[in-house]
Amino acid sequence: MRLTRKRLCSFLIALYCLFSLYAAYHVFFGRRRRAPAASLRALRKGAVPSRERRGHREQSTLRSEEWNPWEADEKSEQQHRLKSSLQILNKSTKGKTDLHVQIWGKAAIGLYLWEHIFEGLLEPTDVTAQWREGNSVVGRTHYSFITGPAVVPGYFSVDVNNVVLILNGREKAKVFYATKWLLYAQNLVQTQKLQHLAVVLLGNEHCNNEWINQFLKRNGGFVELLFIVYDSPWINDMDIFQWPLGVATYRNFPVVEASWSMVYNERPYLCNFLGTVYENSSRQALMNILKQNGNDKLCWVSSRERWQPQETNESLKNYQDALLQSDLTLCPAGVNTECYRIYEACSCGSIPVVEDVMTAGSCGNTSAHHSAPLQLLKSMNAPFIFIKNWKELPAILEKEKTVTAIGTLFKGTLLLGFLMILDISTKK
């Protein structure tokens, strides 16, 4: 009986120990196992979606790798749309202008500015039209140009803040008319309808331009910049600049398209002079020198005793042909050293031979330049031939006879290059 009790107690103690061990195991190790189990279940729950997503990607990849017969067209269309969008963006950017300038052309040199320098067009094309206008964009500046007899002060709208007024101040009658325009512009400035005004002036050939002094801003006026033709002593390259005379647009001298044929093609005449010969002038001396040694037979020479303000169609064609077919164009001084012939010869690829002498009047050197006359051309290193006396001409012609084809090509290239530089400089 005691043995049975003893065995029973041992069994209970063993059972208690086992229970204690189980309880201890459950307390210390049971939660740690459940946490990984929960994580594992979570992973198992997420395993199917993961496989689904991976399978979806694999299917997408597979589908993308399948051949698409419209793929090239789709890519081309996308590129076209992108290109079109960029073009629209570029156009919208290029179309923006920072400055609007209106040019009022009330002198013939205005056509030289617009048609020969800006290479702008005018509507209508009829040169006798009462009103002509044009538009041009240079860089980020928009220019509009109006000209003609119908352009009268107060009879057209002014919708810009910046104006360039082109005037003729060569004679008293022209000065009276130009003054009216300046008084009209002054009223616009005073009423704040206009902010900035520049004037391009065909000045007096003797440089007697005192009448415009009162309108200059430096003297209490409103004209901020003055561009003046001929060697005025006022020129300082700060607010008064020299402007080239240009070609005779009032005689309908056309725009000549520069081409390499002007340089390459051989010209049949050594030189040319078509113009008026006045008594006791250097032009008369020029004609006498040309007759010496038979040089007049090598040159296209046609003289007249009286000046004609307008050319006939025949005389204009003969003059242009002479310029285009001669290596040199003889440019004797007139009332002023600077003459239209210089620029007309240059535009036709014929080298001007310029009589480099001062004429009567107030023209001369300035504080900025000391090489008058023709200081603008000289400052730009114009590839012209400058002579002080026509007695130098025979030696020049003899030298020109010996110039090789390469030398002629080089001279012509320099001349066309200078013409381009002159246009760019005046456009700026």
TrEMBL record:
Database matches in InterPro entries: RXYLT1-like (IPR055286), RXYLT1_C (IPR057538), RXYLT1_N (IPR057539)
Compositionally biased region (Basic and acidic residues): 50-71
UniProt record, GO biological process: protein O-linked glycosylation via mannose
Record's keyword annotation contains Methyltransferase: no
UniProtKB keywords: Transferase
Domain RXYLT1 C-terminal: 250-404
Residue segments, region Disordered: 48-71
Top-rank lineage group of the source organism: Eukaryota
UniProt GO molecular function: ribitol beta-1,4-xylosyltransferase activity
RXYLT1 N-terminal domain sequence ranges: 101-244
Pfam families tied to this protein: RXYLT1_C (PF24785), RXYLT1_N (PF24786)
Protein name: Ribitol-5-phosphate xylosyltransferase 1
Source organism of this protein record: Camelus dromedarius (Dromedary)
